[in-house]
């Protein structure tokens, strides 16, 4: 005999949507199908998610929130920033391979602020990441540079990997029926009261020179290949 149905909550709706998309793909996810899985009418979901955009943003937030970085408090004198980056890279890759159907969402949804570059697109994660680099001896300018190069590397490598796992990396074609619900405005920029490192580096993080970053990444790649082929 089954017990009484648990009341709906935003967290429950988002986690069910993530699990469904993990198994069936994002294009199979509709509000009607999600309601069926939860045992409710589709319109009941709108008490917890305000349409498609809100649902997708919530799913991204649910996945990104599982990324765990070593806390600044755990830094010891022998810690090196290179080891820190290895730990972060493997942590993010673990999220991507656990949710290959949804990782392209993390990569392509517009972040709420220019310093939230995917896949490190959560303010607490960016704060911990920059604090981890600075705490391991990198100057502010170097920490910002590493953040930009590192996120670009992660995006390219992991998008390729999830595509090889069968994920659709293009935009989904209207996967969710909106009904008559209003689509909320773009997510407001996060408040920086709890992110002192991001606040201090905000201007540097906002600067973006796509061509320069591309040339720097290409030069680093060519240097690495040259070293490998000359051995």
Instruction: Compute the CA-based radius of gyration.
Output: 20 Å
Oligomerization: single chain
What separation lies between the terminal Cα atoms?
Answer: 68 Å
The CATH topology name reads Tetracycline Repressor, domain 2
Roughly how much helix do the residues carry, as a percent range?
A: 55-70%
Averaged pLDDT: 82
Which class do the helix and strand fractions yield? mainly alpha
Shape descriptor reads globular
Describe the protein in words.
With 231 residues, this protein is mainly alpha-helical. The chain has a single domain, classed as Tetracycline Repressor, domain 2. The protein contains 10 helices and no strands. Helix 1 crosses helix 3, helix 4 runs parallel beside helix 7 and helix 6 crosses helix 7. The longest helix is centred in the middle third of the chain and has 25 residues. The protein is globular and about 60 Å long. The termini are far apart.
What is this structure, in a nutshell?
The chain has 231 residues and is mainly alpha-helical. The chain is built from 10 helices and no strands.
């Amino acid at each position: 005999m089954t017990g009484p149905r648990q009341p709906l909550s935003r967290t429950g709706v988002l986690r069910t949507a993530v699990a469904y998309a993990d198994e069936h793909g994002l294009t199979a996810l509709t509000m009607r199908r999600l309601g069926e899985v939860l045992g409710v009418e589709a319109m009941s979901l709108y008490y917890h998610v305000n349409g498609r955009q809100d649902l997708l943003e919530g799913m991204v937030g649910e996945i990104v929130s599982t990324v765990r970085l070593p806390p600044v408090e755990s830094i010891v004198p022998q810690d090196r920033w290179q080891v820190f980056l290895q730990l972060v890279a493997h942590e993010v890759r673990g999220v991507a391979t656990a949710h290959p159907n949804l990782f392209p969402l993390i990569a392509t949804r517009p972040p709420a602020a220019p310093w939230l570059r995917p896949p490190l697109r959560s303010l607490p994660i960016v704060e911990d990441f920059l604090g981890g680099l600075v705490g391991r001896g990198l100057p502010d300018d170097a920490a910002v540079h590493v953040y930009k190069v590192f996120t670009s590397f992660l995006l390219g490598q992991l998008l390729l990997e999830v595509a090889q796992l069968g994920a659709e990396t293009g935009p989904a074609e209207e996967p969710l029926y909106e009904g008559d619900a209003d689509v909320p405005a773009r997510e407001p920029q996060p408040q920086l009261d709890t992110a002192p490192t991001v606040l201090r580096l905000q201007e540097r993080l906002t600067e973006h020179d796509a061509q320069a970053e591309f040339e720097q990444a290409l030069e680093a790649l060519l240097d690495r290949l040259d070293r490998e082929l000359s051995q």
